[in-house]
Amino acid sequence: MTWFWIGIIVASTTVGEVLQAMGMRRHGEIRDFRPGALGRAAAVLVRNRFVIGSVVSMAVSFFAYMRLLTVADLSFAVPVTAVTFAIETALAKYVLRERVNWLRWTGAALVICGVALVSA
Amino acid sequence: MPTESARLRLKTWICATVVVLSNVFGNFFMKRGMPAQLASPLQYITVLFQPWVSLGVLLLILWLLSRMALLSWADLSYVLPVTSVGYVLVAFAGKILLNEQITARRWGGILLIVAGVALVSGGSVPQTARPRVSGTEELR
Asked: How far apart are CA B78 and CA A92, in angstroms?
């Protein structure tokens, strides 16, 4: 059952985080961090369908994560969900069309190996 | 006068620090307050009002918002490795605060993560040259 919840977390986190990146990119850089300006940005973002989709996915991921925490160690639960990392880097290149240069690929590969060791 | 890329780099570091710390402590407080079993769907809601879990949830909300802000200018393929230093800090939190065991293998993993983060964050600017993405209002 542990791996079932991990599967749900990985799928919903991946979808949520990619949608979040798409939504925020569409919104553009947040430059003004004063409360009023942040409030106005929030008012725009709650109508952004990518952001809405991302919040729904992250909520699914959150409740599945709560369930996982009842049965797993913190130092297992957090690293194991980092499988999303590999999928998301590929999606960053092919869906978000980011320029993922060799430094990023190498860094991502090192992090993935590291996460595998930490969670083993 | 700081250049545009220096400004962006400083802003990225400040925001990434908030993202990492809110994630680490949010997860830690959630684990600390979580009961050994969640028997009914109702319990998923009631446990949110347990003080440690509430604090964890508040920090995870801060994590979500700061990560959204960071992604408004930085690439996902940059944000992912840079914020993964949080995995290292979570391992430390597990060891120091929850007395979990860290084996030699886990230390090796932590070193690899730090190396990966250093490589990505030290060597490249946080964003891909804009504009692209089929979107319309990209340049502003």
From this structure: 10
Cα–Cα dist B23/B27, whole Å: 6
B67 touches chain A (CB under 8 A): yes
B55-99 confidence digits (pLDDT tens)? 999 999 999 999 999 999 998 888 888 888 887 888 788 888 888
Q: How many domains does chain B have?
A: 1
Question: Residue B119 and residue A107: Cβ atoms within 8 Å?
Answer: yes
Where in the sequence is the domain holding B86, given as residue range(s)? 4-123
Q: Is A120 on the interface with B (CB under 8 A)?
A: yes
What number of H helices and E strands is found in chain A? 6, 0
ipTM exceeding 0.85? no
Q: Does B40 contact chain A (CB < 8 Å)?
A: no
In a domain, B41, yes or no: yes
For B72, the closest of A30, A103, A107 (CB atoms) is A30
In whole numbers, what is the pLDDT of chain A averaged over residues? Answer: 87
- Virtual torsion, Cα B97, B102, B108, B111, nearest 10 deg: 10
Which residues in chain B (6-25) have CB-CB distances under 8 A to chain A? none
Q: Is residue B85 part of a domain?
A: yes
In sequence order, which residues have a C-beta less than 8 Å from that of residue A35 and are 6 or more positions away?
none
Of A88, A70, A99, A103, residue with least CA distance to A16: A88
Looking at the complex, does the CB of residue B69 fall below 8 Å from at least one CB of chain A?
yes
Name the residue in chain A with its Cα closest to that of B89: A75
